[in-house]
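Let's sit down with a protein and look at its sequence and fold side by side. Which protein we use is up to you, so please pick one and set it down. Label the sequence line and the structure token line clearly, so we can match residues to local backbone shapes. Go ahead whenever you are ready, and we will take it from there:

***
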Amino acid sequence: MLVLTRKTGQEIVIDGEIRITVTSIGDGRVKLGISAPSHVKVDRAEVAARIAAEEADAAVLVCG
């Protein structure tokens, strides 16, 4: 894991095409803006976990 310190307005670039921008910091929260090409799926971890669980459940029903 890479850990970086950034200030509001600063960015991190991943693979030359994904940009993560710190939009605000305060009250125990950091807000991030994410710009990525349309073929890159971006989800919060809990959403990705829920989608994976739903897909696994669907696979069990199909393969049964």
Summary: Residues 56 and 62 are 10 Å apart (CA to CA). The longest helix spans residues 45-63. Helices lie at 45-63. The two ends are 38 Å apart (CA to CA).
